[in-house]
From TrEMBL, chain A:
Entry annotated with the keyword Transmembrane: no
Cofactor dependency: (6R)-5,10-methylene-5,6,7,8-tetrahydrofolate; FAD
Record PROSITE patterns: PHR_CRY_ALPHA_BETA
Sample GO molecular function, one term: photoreceptor activity
Subcellular location(s) of the protein: Cytoplasm; Nucleus
GO CC field: cytoplasm; nucleus
One Pfam family named in its UniProt record: DNA_photolyase
UniProt protein name: Cryptochrome-1
Organism: Dicentrarchus labrax (European seabass)
UniProtKB/TrEMBL annotation, chain B:
Subcellular location: Cytoplasm; Nucleus
Protein name in UniProt: F-box and leucine-rich repeat protein 3a
Keywords (A to Z) from UniProt: Biological rhythms, Cytoplasm, Leucine-rich repeat, Nucleus, Repeat, Ubl conjugation pathway
InterPro entries referenced in this protein's UniProt entry, alphabetically: F-box-like_dom_sf, F-box_dom, LRR_dom_sf
PROSITE patterns xrefs: FBOX
Pathway annotation: Protein modification; protein ubiquitination
Recorded name of the encoding gene: fbxl3a
A GO BP annotation: rhythmic process
């Protein structure tokens, strides 16, 4: 098995008692948790804390499925800690208020947590570090939510985050090997460290139920409906995560195929080997996953050098974390140096139809329904709905879509969500914009029979496969037989896709032509190509030049000829 | 710029009471030259410094080009050109304006505001006019008469219009007649894709009278044999660029055909002309197309196009330079690609979206095209590994034949 050799225990000043707090945020696990492990070493008491902070960035936009997943994770953690004669302490409030109180009450002199690379996380942690310093509390931080120390990746790229995935892969190839996962916390590891559990621990610090949590959040105007909630398709927690890892690897080994799996109707449904939410919450260590994958590949393929594509899922995550870590405007268009300024439409009505699965396109609506009900959709389904909302059909800002995903997806986090939305809306990263996912054709090609539609949109069950993706084209008799009249029982399509895509491809072209100063006729050449100089933040600003007349670089029309370039 | 202003203030403060200030005495041509480097906002600040600078700010040369940005906060994230500035321009500079464009958001208000401004440009002699919707085509929401009368003001007053961009607007045949009556000698560029109120006769009138027309963009329903013949008549200059959008309004729509002889006439008359075609059709609507040789150079399929049609493209498009396929479906395009490589010897750019091609066929394709492929944009999912090549191997092979490092386009996996 994979564990790194433990570092020497920190020195103790005479026989000072060390009382430590480990602060869980992500990294909700006991395996590969180096900051927790370091914290325990030489400590006399340990308290593992989770702070429920309704003020923290994005908290007001968390949907019920993610809260539930989080609570499962906390319960699981609490159970695991019980087996180690410890418990989890769940505390409500803001860290800047909570910690000074705890430092005093519990006589804390050590605090540990897993490094959080996101800008708001860094800000929050800087404030806590200051408080800790003032209170004489030693702070121990370790990187374990990402494969690499992101700072080093950026350093390797001359201080700039790589702006293309290709550039990122090239940098990864030059980085030192990924560090081995830290040893799991066991009774043995924790033997000298006690947790003074009080009798009223459950009342004061117990993991709340979903209802209790609902009541608490209600005070902060965060509401969710627990009635009628179906069983969780994605049960949270480290225990579940590790089981899934085994299943996931078993399946890969059995198929003996490490290529990206072909998309089919089944792929759309939640998989018992899906790992993305567990990686997001840190129930599963990305490094453990990395090494287990490597090991399996070597065994099955009898090949010692696995290709980078094996780690696709992990590396994309890493890429977006890297691009976002120094950019607090990463989730916005305005003021974001890596985002193209696109004149998106403001249209709350259209946005609501998309968010609620009322577009009139069964493929889109089924996906959004699954998303809302279960909290997870396949990544190609994400591409389909993201494209539809932004550059494909509705021409609405990716920021709006990102907020809806933030609310509904359980595996979403700030960096990956914002980065992926920018990518899918062709707002960044030098993406070609020509390939548009057809809201009818793409679904039909993926699941010709339409079972996915029938499952999530039961109102359309009666439609035959021929018409289920475009029921508005079905003759009246077919609609009557299906007991679903389009426009009455199910909405008419909210846009004409051919017309919308025609308009939008023209808009994207206008924007990119301005960006790249390309005046030729080709569509592909309008996207500026990444320059191999570290991909530094060359300001990708198509901008609105406030009626600039300036030097007669005519804004959008050339007098006479446009260069008939090839 | 603000530094310069501060410096000026300081200097002026030192020369208290003096009538002379070097900065103020800079020759106007020099001021003009400097001001041309400044964005509008900074120039506006500079104009507040002293009288001479203010005069320079209003020199006609600085008001030749202007882009009016008309956005409403309720429908756009972007800022609009300040209404006071617009008033000033109309008042003091409308006769200086030569190259003008209007960028409007999706609200009807913005489009109407653009029309209002247009109506006031009576003293203008525009060379270039562009009406650009940055989101939904809001000019189509403006009452037709309002739009037409505004546009007519420009046509009648600007007798030397050279470039006109009026895509997605309610322009109609009579207004095109007005355009032609006043600007037939100077019109070089006309972009009017998706103008539903224009008929083939309307555009034919333009082609017949405007012999200097070099660039034209319109929808397929306006294209006719007569139009192509008019554009290839002796009196007509060489056409440089013809863009045609083929859009399906309803499934099963029927499209007319253009005779091969008309295309041949075009090529004879303008051997270097570029024909750009954008198709937004259902798969079964391609019947009338690609059955005979057609001189298309840039081809875009915005919806799924069948294997069969791509096969015909390979046979009948010898001048093809760029091919972009959004989607095809799940049968490999191996043969079709090879055929395209063989017959389309000018092909230098290809983009494939939701399609399938076996890795071996793809390598073969690249080998046949060689280094002339300057743009190769293939989605990762397109390439199907086979016995010869895996996905990891393919990028080396392709890079080898292209003479540069190449990777397929990727999409993030969650």
């Amino acid at each position: 098995c994979f564990t790194s050799s433990p570092p020497p225990p920190p020195k103790k000043l005479c026989d000072m008692v060390v009382n430590t707090i480990h602060w869980f945020r992500k990294g909700l696990r006991l395996h590969d948790n180096p900051s927790l492990r370091d914290s325990i070493r030489g400590a006399d008491s340990l308290r593992c804390v989770y702070i429920l902070d309704p003020w923290f960035a994005g908290s007001s936009n968390v949907g019920i499925n993610r809260w539930r997943f989080l609570l499962h994770c906390l319960e699981d953690l609490d159970n695991s800690l019980r087996k180690l004669n410890s418990r989890l302490y769940v505390i409500r409030g803001q860290p800047t208020d909570v910690f000074p109180r705890l430092f005093k009450e519990w006589q804390i002199n050590r605090l540990s947590y897993e490094y959080d690379s996101e800008p708001f996380g860094k800000e929050r942690d800087a404030a806590i570090q200051k408080l800790a310093c003032e209170a004489g509390v030693e702070v121990m931080v370790q990187v374990s939510h990402t494969l690499y120390n992101l700072v080093k990746i950026i350093e390797l790229n001359d201080g700039h985050p790589p702006l293309t995935y290709k550039r990122f892969q090239a940098l990864i190839n030059r980085m030192d090997a990924v560090e081995l996962p830290a040893e799991t916390i066991t009774l043995e590891v924790i033997r000298n460290c006690a947790t003074p559990i009080s009798e009223d621990h459950d009342d004061k610090f117990g993991v709340p139920s979903l209802e209790e949590l609902g009541k608490f959040l209600f005070l902060f105007f965060i509401r969710f409906e627990t009635e009628g909630l179906t069983t969780a398709i994605w049960p949270g927690g480290e225990t579940e995560a590790l089981m899934r890892l085994e299943r996931h690897l078993e399946r890969k080994a059995w198929v003996a195929n490490f290529e990206r799996p072909r998309m089919n109707a089944n792929s759309l449904l939640a998989s018992p080997t899906g790992l993305s939410p567990y990686l997001r919450f840190g129930c599963l260590s990305c490094r453990l996953f990395y090494f287990r994958l490597t090991d399996l590949y070597r065994k099955v393929k009898k090949n010692n050098s696995p290709p980078l594509s094996l780690y696709g899922q992990l590396l994309w995550r890493e890429f977006f974390y890297t691009t976002a870590t120094n950019n607090s405007c990463f989730d916005k268009m305005e003021g974001n140096p890596v985002c193209v300024q696109i004149p998106w439409d403001r249209n709350p009505e259209a946005l609501a139809k998309w968010a609620e699965g009322q577009t009139g396109f069964p493929w889109i609506d089924a996906i959004m329904t699954q998303l809302r009900q279960e909290g997870w959709i396949h990544h190609l389904a994400r591409h389909a709905v993201a494209c539809f909302l932004t550059r494909g059909d509705l021409w609405i800002s990716w920021e709006e879509g990102m907020k809806v995903f933030e609310e509904l997806l359980i595996d979403v986090d700030w960096s990956v969500n914002a980065g992926s939305w920018m990518w899918l809306s062709c707002s960044s990263f030098f993406q070609q914009f020509f390939h548009c996912y057809c809201p009818v054709g793409f679904g039909r090609r993926t699941d010709p029979n339409g079972d996915y539609i029938r499952r999530y949109l039961p109102i359309l069950r009666g439609f035959p496969a021929k018409y289920i993706y475009d029921p508005w084209n079905a003759p009246e008799e077919v609609q009557k037989a299906a007991k679903c009249i389009i426009g009455v029982h199910y909405p008419k399509p909210m846009v004409n896709h051919a017309e919308a895509s025609r308009v939008n491809i023209e808009r994207m072209k206008q924007i990119y032509q301005q960006l790249s100063s390309y005046r030729g006729l080709g569509l592909l050449a309008t996207v500026p190509v990444h320059i191999n100089n570290g991909g530094n933040g060359k300001r990708v600003d198509a901008g609105t030049r406030q009626g600039s007349a300036g030097s007669c670089e005519t804004p959008s029309i050339q007098e006479g000829m446009s260069s008939a370039g090839t | 710029m603000l530094n310069q202003k501060r410096e000026t203030q300081e200097k002026q403060n030192k020369i208290v009471g003096s009538l002379d200030s070097d900065w103020a005495r800079l020759p106007q041509e020099l001021l003009l030259h400097i001001f041309q480097y400044l964005p509008l906002l900074d120039r506006a600040y500079a104009s507040q410094v002293c009288r001479r600078w203010n005069q320079a700010f209003h020199m006609p040369e600085l008001w030749r080009c202007f882009e009016f940005e008309l956005n409403q906060p309720a429908s756009s994230y972007l800022k609009a050109t300040h209404p006071d500035l617009i008033k000033q321009i109309i008042k003091r500079h409308s006769n200086h304006l030569q190259y003008v464009s209007f960028k409007v958001d999706s609200s009807t208000e913005s489009a109407e505001a653009a029309c209002d401004i247009l109506s006031q440009l009576v003293n203008c002699s525009l060379k270039t006019l562009g009406l650009i919707s940055t989101a939904r085509p809001s000019f189509m929401e403006v009452p037709k008469s309002h739009f037409i009368s505004a546009l007519t003001v420009v046509f009648v007053n600007s007798k030397s219009l050279s470039s006109l961009k009026i895509d997605d607007t309610p322009v109609d045949d009579p207004s095109l007649k007005v355009l032609v009556a006043n600007n037939s000698d100077t019109l070089k560029l006309l972009k009017m894709s998706s103008c539903p109120h224009v008929s083939p006769a309307g555009i034919l009138c333009v082609a017949d009278q405007c012999h200097g027309l070099r660039e034209l963009a319109l929808n397929y329903h306006l294209l006719s044999d007569e139009l192509l013949l008019a554009l290839s008549s002796e009196k007509h200059v060489h056409l440089e660029h013809l863009r045609i959008d083929v859009v399906s309004e309803n499934p099963g729509q029927h499209f007319h055909t253009i005779k091969k002889s008309s295309w041949d006439a075009m090529v004879r008359h303008s051997p270097k002309f570029n024909l750009v075609m954008y198709f937004f059709l259902y798969e079964d609507e391609f019947g009338p197309f690609f059955n005979e040789e057609i001189p298309v150079t840039h081809l875009y399929f915005g919806r799924s196009v069948s294997k069969e049609v791509l096969g015909r493209v390979g046979l009948h498009c010898p001048r093809l330079v760029e091919l972009v396929v959004c989607a095809n479906g799940l049968r490999p395009l191996d043969e079709e690609l090879i055929r395209i490589a063989k017959h389309c010897t000018q092909l230098s750019a290809i983009g494939l979206g939701e399609c399938e091609v076996s890795c071996s066929a793809f390598v073969e394709f690249v080998k046949m095209c060689g280094r002339r492929l300057s743009q190769l944009s293939i989605m990762e999912e397109v390439l199907i590994p086979d016995h010869k090549y895996s996905l990891d191997e393919i990028h080396w092979e392709v890079s080898k034949h292209l003479g540069r490092v190449w990777f397929p386009d990727m999409m993030p996996t969650w």
